[in-house]
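Box 4.2: Ligand-aware structure prediction
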Amino acid sequence: MQQFRAGEMVHAYLLTGARGLGKRTFARVLASTLFCMSEHKPCGVCDACRRVWDWNDPDVITLFADDGKQIKVDEVREVIRQVGQHSFGTGHRVVLIEPVEKLTPGAQNCLLKTLEEPLSNVVFILMTHELTATLGTIASRCVRVKMQPWPDALLGDTLEKLGYDRAKIPMALGLSGGNIGMAIECLEDAAGDEESRSFAAKVLASKSDADILALSTALKDGKGDAEQYLTALETAFHQALMMKAGLLPEEALSRYPKGWVDSLSHVDEAALNRLLEAVFLARRRRAGQVNWQSTLDQLMMTILEEQKSWQRS
Ligand SMILES: [Zn+2]
């Protein structure tokens, strides 16, 4: 940031780190620092900042492999042609490429030549989710910036500012390991699928074969997504394990039946692992085209038997 604010950038940076850590966002912040018209850069609100933020600045050129396809040499050549022309604004040009591991060998060579003979006023910000050996030559010509996981306190504050439900944030912190993209994904999932969550809650609350039978009958007419039902159960058991390991506060499980959460206090980790295994087995059956209803019935029975044994203990 200091280099960009002072106009003392080098010609190429490589941001490394797992998907979700905020590489692309950081690249945009860096780019807007160059174009921002306010005193404290980047302000995020001036026209120049907005243009960069909306991907609407002709001096910020992007090459993203969001479709999962490779980035071809022709695409790199086109970008290099564009940066060779006059700039539209302050004279700076920024090229963002993500992820560089998607460049074909030809495209890598083409980019490498440009990095070896830097163009004035052009800054390349390259991004990689995984720094592989094949990127060594490109990496050696860039200043590397390793994106770090966020500290929990900062991540929690940020999620709250973004408007996420305060009660669910501890759960997202526990599951994301400081990765803001992953935390947001958890929170979106948790908010989005009310039906599978209520299914999971009912399974966890079931006390008898009759409960399971009623649930199973209700499901026959339901349109719920099989995969999401399994994920909802898996999440419950996973969170229970995390709570037992002291990695999640008990409040993070507040969406589950209280009786079930209380019973966790005298359940060992092996029992929860058996339940996770049962979900895994159900997934495998489903993949193997075994009848979904019978797979689900069997899974619910396994969970019921396990939970009955908790009561006895
Ligand atoms: Zn600005």
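In the box above, the bound molecule is zinc ion. The chain has 15 helices and five strands.
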